[in-house]
Amino acid sequence: MIPVGRMSDLVDGYVEYKRSRGFKIRTEARTLRRFAAWADAAHPGEPLSTELALGWVGTFDGVTDWYGARLWETVRTFSRWACVTDGGSTMLPKGRGTCHGRGEPYIYEDREMAALMSGLSCLHSPDGLRARSAVAMCGLMRACGLRPSECCRLTVGDYDARTATLSVVATKFNRSRLVPLGDSAAARIESHLSAVPATHAAHPMFPRTGGRPFDVRALEYAWQLTRDALLPDGETAWGRRPPRPYDLRHTMITKTLEGWLAAGVDVDAMMPRLSAYVGHRKLQDTYWYLSATDALLGTASDMFATYAFGGGRDE
Length: 315
Prior knowledge:
Oligomer: single chain
Distance between the termini: 63 Å
Helix content: 40-55%
Strand order of the largest sheet: 1-2-3
Shape: globular
Radius of gyration: 23 Å
């Protein structure tokens, strides 16, 4: 064990270690550095302990129980590494609330996609780039299941018109993959690129006003300005988590499965291909994105009825 005098040094070592293993941990790193700065200022030289972590979480007034649990869990995860590296640190216990779990994703229907893209096309955009890129990104994420961060980082040189493929480089866990596009998606991307003022391959594929690249926050803000068009008639507020750009990844995976089942495709044989297409290392990560839509539940019901009453095993 190597004792570390400052909490900031311990956090920097943890962040460097995680990133060397392929993790991005941008948000986690920011949170831990806030914790370390507070600890070094308020309790200099004090090792990581339950009391120290609770004291820091307690400095956040008026936060939700979920956010408080998230702060605790971030420090608790760091403590696994800290207690091995620093002789004075201790492993923090579980049980400070629930911050994990799968929220209910929004599965976009085709008519809702049309309404959303219509709204995005009307975004204030002095040079037209912001609105044009937002619409193109929306369609691409729905067609290919790209993560919003992957979409934002694409450059003009990442598209190969000869093979109609996208190169998604150094994404989650530092993995890269080639994403083949269907004819319709390829045509839309080529149409979009023909209107983008690019002078080199590193130019952003989806620029916003002034040629600056989109980032995830800017994309989420575009959604905030336009998603209310999807509210049911007579409703003025969302009674659930509002639709997000990331929900397009859930939609693509769920709707792909719906289409396969409707066409009689062998889903078990095709799921590994879908998992590789969306950049997952494990098949169960892809199943996590599925939602129990009316179409999937109806198909499951029909399949069970066939099994139970018409095609089940003989007794």
